[in-house]
Design goal:
It is built from two helices and twelve strands. By secondary structure, it is mainly beta. The strands form four sheets. Strands 2-1-4-6 form a four-stranded mixed β-sheet, with no helix packed on it. Strands 3-8-7-5 form a four-stranded mixed β-sheet, with no helix packed on it. It has a two-stranded parallel ribbon with strand order 9-12. It is globular and about 55 Å long.
């Protein structure tokens, strides 16, 4: 009986998804040797050989279909932080919790339903320290009806950054016997890059802006 109820819930969920708009993305996860802070160069995690990873925008009710290719030399997984995943926890992207991770050279497709949610979330890697090595980006679910009126919608997001990978920082802390102290970040990125090179926001008098921070 419980099995039949479960199957019915999955069927109803699939039917709801069938009437939604489909937003399909293709992500090839790899590494790119680049300077994101304007000073230090190392292999940041990238998508489609580019960093920063572009923010993902959908409208409430859409279904995000995220086709992922793992071109790293280690497993990876993708987590849409803040999505409930009711009855679809197999798309939650938590390695060794809801999935085994995507092996190197393999593909996986995540299907993310936004019927019941709207707001400013984020998508990030969920294997070890991949999110701190650059695998993260905003996930904006726009309301079907604006909660208020405004002339322009801007995304302004901030990231901690360092001149080396998270694993390297942990190793340095261990040598200094600072294992109980989280690694410190020396730089903050604005919209994925150094503040000196990030795109400026221009505000005009008598206009109203929505900032997604």
């Amino acid at each position: 009986m419980l099995f039949l109820i479960w199957e019915l819930l999955l069927l109803l969920n699939s039917a709801a998804i069938g009437f939604a708009e489909r937003v399909e993305l293709f992500w090839d996860i790899g590494r790119l040797n680049i300077s994101r802070d304007g000073y230090n160069t190392w292999d940041s995690i990238c998508v489609n050989n580019a960093v920063p990873i572009p923010p993902v925008h959908v409208t409430q009710g859409d279904v995000l279909v995220l086709n992922v290719r793992n071109s790293l030399d280690v497993p990876t997984a993708v987590h849409a932080h803040g999505i409930y995943h009711n009855y679809t926890d197999y798309y939650d992207g938590a390695e060794m919790v809801t999935e085994c991770g995507i092996p190197p050279g393999e593909n996986f497709t995540y299907v993310i339903d936004t019927t019941t949610q709207a707001g400013d979330l984020w998508i990030h890697g969920h294997v070890h320290s991949q999110l701190t090595d650059g695998f993260r980006t905003p996930f904006i679910i726009h309301e079907k009806v604006k909660p208020t009126t405004y002339d322009k919608d801007e995304v302004l997001y901030f990231e901690d950054w360092n001149e080396r990978t998270f694993e390297d920082m942990v190793a340095i802390d261990a040598k200094l016997k600072l294992a109980d102290i989280p690694p410190l970040y020396r730089t903050m990125l604005i919209n994925g890059v150094n503040a000196n090179t990030s795109k400026s926001l221009h505000f005009e008098p008598r206009k109203r802006y929505r900032l997604r921070i």
